[in-house]
Design goal:
The protein is an alpha+beta fold and 270 residues long. It folds into two domains: 109 residues, Alpha-Beta Plaits, CATH 3.30.70; 158 residues, Pseudouridine synthase (2-Layer Sandwich), CATH 3.30.2350.10. It contains six helices and 14 strands. The longest helix has 15 residues. The model has no long low-confidence stretch (mean pLDDT 94).
């Protein structure tokens, strides 16, 4: 059984200057998962050089034979899928090689479904649509491009959830997880994600823009949420002959605060 007290911790120097703790949001005989914060990498790539890397920190502690990991039954660094460093949300690892094969094969066979929540401005009146544009890595820049010649197939289903004035909360669901997929597909279909500066001109939202009697303090005002407003809220499994509970990842607290402020000062409506 999973427990709120179960966590993975790292000493200073592994993921920065401070010690870090990651409560487990899922823990069973096959897998474990953390709620990854935005800005934390989970795989080595030229686009993530210099960023703290959870997978590398985990590998290092496995080599140290850390008792905490042994107690959890974690036998190796078996990441099931890659989650872009800029995104937050559910990050899933298999506990052993056997389950790594099972879960990676499931991911490659469209038996793993990824559910994102994103906050955006919309240029479309559609409340549900699909984008299936193939994506390829740009030959030079650190970005993805739509390419019908060299791109890999992928498909994202978008569904409107709630309106906050000029901003809307959307769900994006896919059984693929290409690099930057949700971001590119959102931009191509007229959704400007809050915090997006690569594929669209996304806003940063400040309390002074929402609250009429806002009193400015000293110094420069910070946005209510200073990360990209895309969060992987759920990973679900449809593996024949194997029943696994979905992995649920609550929104970051500051993302939640942003939605509450939008609801309070702009008036949320369905």
């Amino acid at each position: 059984m999973s427990s709120k007290k179960e966590l993975i911790s790292f000493p200073p120097g592994y993921l920065g200057n401070r010690p870090e703790k990651f409560p487990l949001i899922a823990n069973n005989e096959a897998l474990f998962a953390i709620n990854k914060p935005a800005g934390l990498a989970c795989f080595q790539h030229e686009w993530t050089l210099g960023k703290p890397d959870f997978s590398m920190a985990l590998r290092r502690e496995l080599l140290n034979e850390k008792p905490q990991l042994q107690k959890l039954g974690i036998e190796g660094m078996f990441r099931v899928f890659n989650l872009d460093a800029e995104l937050s949300g559910a990050l899933v690892y298999a506990k052993n090689e056997e389950n790594e094969v099972l879960l990676k094969n499931a991911a490659g066979s469209s038996q793993v479904q990824y559910h994102f929540h994103l906050l955006a401005r919309s240029e479309t009146e559609d409340r549900e649509f699909v984008c299936d544009l193939p994506l390829s890595k740009h030959f030079q820049a650190k970005r993805m491009v739509v390419s019908h010649r060299t791109g890999k197939k992928c498909e994202t289903h978008f569904k409107f959830l709630r309106s906050f004035g000029q901003y809307q909360l959307w769900e994006a669901v896919s059984t693929n997880l290409r690099a930057h997929q949700v971001r590119v597909h959102a931009a191509e279909r007229g959704l400007s994600i809050v915090g997006e500066d690569l594929y669209a001109d996304g806003d940063e939202i400040y309390l002074s823009r929402l609250k009429r009697d806002y009193m400015r303090g000293k110094g420069r005002e910070k946005p209510l949420y200073d990360k990209l407003c895309v969060h992987l809220v759920e990973v679900s499994f449809a593996i024949p002959g194997r029943e696994l509970d979905p992995v649920l990842a609550p929104l970051p607290s500051r993302f939640e605060t942003l939605l509450k402020r939008l609801d309070e000062y702009r008036g949320g409506r369905g």
